[in-house]
Design goal:
The protein is of the alpha/beta class and 199 residues long. The protein has eight helices and five strands, in the order βαβαβαβαβαααα. The radius of gyration is 23 Å and the shape is elongated.
Length: 199
């Protein structure tokens, strides 16, 4: 499994384009597939290379740029689209998100924020490519208390462990009043506060 991210950068401003490219070249896990200052050419490059991330400047010709984003989003579901714009009002950001953008970056682009967003994307891509075929998730849920969710979940977990001979993780997401430890008569080594502090 590769942890490399493929990127296509489309930016009307040559200085910003070069700054992004230079920043990305310093990151070992970034593979810049293509770069252009023309959104029409950029669309063709995106469809050809199918990158993990597309960074698009929508400062010029907003409506047409949003249409391009919609087409990319429709054809390449797994490609994450980051947009930047000189127009930083709420309306533009909402339109970009509705078109399919995952991130909205103000201009001038803060490279640290861009790298942080890309690192988040890297975590997502690694998670998506991980092999989880060995496990299954069962959820016991009700919006009413006292009807036996913990009883069912606990007995299901124990039964699955006995039947399959495999490990079973039982997670009680009632973070304030969970009773799984009482039902199993155990004192857990770790709790939710440990996870939060050591995420």
């Amino acid at each position: 499994m590769s942890d490399e991210l493929s990127v296509v950068v489309i930016d009307n401003d040559s200085d910003t384009l070069q700054a992004i490219i230079q920043e990305f070249e310093s990151l070992e896990y970034i593979n810049i597939l293509a770069e252009t200052d023309n959104i029409a050419v950029g669309y063709d490059l995106v469809m050809k290379h199918r990158p993990n991330i597309v960074i698009i400047d929508i400062s010029e010709n907003l409506d047409w740029s949003l249409g391009v984003i919609e087409r990319i989003s429709a054809h390449l579901k797994e490609t994450m689209i980051y947009v930047s714009s000189n127009e930083t009002n709420f309306d533009v950001a909402i339109k970009a998100m509705r078109a399919g953008a995952r991130e909205f970056l103000d201009r001038p682009i803060n490279l640290e924020e861009l790298v942080a967003a890309v690192e988040k994307a890297r975590d997502y891509v690694l998670f998506q490519s991980a092999d989880f075929s060995q496990g299954q998730i069962y959820t016991i849920f009700s919006n009413k208390g006292g009807i036996g969710k913990t009883t069912i979940a606990t007995n299901l977990a124990i039964s699955l462990c006995k039947i399959t001979g495999k490990s079973v993780a039982l997670v009680d997401l009632n973070l304030q009043l969970g009773d799984v430890t009482t039902f199993l008569d155990i004192q857990p080594t770790y709790d939710i506060s440990y996870i939060v502090k050591n995420i």
